[in-house]
Amino acid sequence: MLASLDLLTAFVLFAFVSSITPGPNNTMLLASGVNFGVRRSIPHAMGISIGFMVMVLAVGFGLGEVFKAWPPLYSILRYLGAAYLLYLAYKIATSGPISASGNGSAKPMSFLGAAAFQWVNPKAWVMAVGAITTYTPAQGYVVNVIVIAAVFALVNLPSVGIWVMFGSALRSLLQNPRWLMLFNVLMALLLVISLYPLLFVESAFS
């Protein structure tokens, strides 16, 4: 188990702050809450938490070392992530008006899609590497990695859920198609801005 209560408390604080602050996941969840409501966005939020937990386990059990040994692999992942983020930004920007059952013919991100997105999300990589390198004691390493991943998932889900609920609360204010279009374009621009650390900041595996 984690070495001390102080270390566990510090990690929970790290998990909360890194989960609730703005990033690609929370930007998309805010937009999903507006366009699809809370219920239809639940698989998206669950996919983020479970997918990120799997990523933390993978990094803890050696994937991070693979990227350190062969940096071009991570570079390929970064550019694939950039392309996918641009695609998601386009989908959000071109979303139609809100309907009673959701946003027209558009569909919210699925559980598997949200889980897979973590692997091309730059903020998720920073969080996973930070959790493993900073808060995982060497003694009892395997158990500690599992604890870190599980606690992160438990903290992450309600944290990202707040963004869905906030978006859902805005639905009534964005029934006007013009305001909704403006909101979706703003969310798309925020996703594009989030590409800056992905493309121009030195990789953690350099």
UniProtKB/TrEMBL annotation:
Ranges that cross the membrane: 43-64, 76-93, 141-167, 179-199
Superkingdom, natural source: Bacteria
UniProt topology in membrane: Multi-pass membrane protein
Keyword set includes Nucleotide-binding: no
Residues of the signal peptide: none
GO process terms (BP): cysteine export across plasma membrane
GO CC annotation terms, alphabetical: plasma membrane
A molecular function (GO) term: amino acid transmembrane transporter activity
Keywords of the record: Cell membrane, Membrane, Transmembrane, Transmembrane helix
Main location: membrane
Keyword Transmembrane helix among UniProt keywords: yes
Subcellular location: Cell membrane
Protein name: LysE family translocator
Protein species of origin: Pseudomonas urmiensis
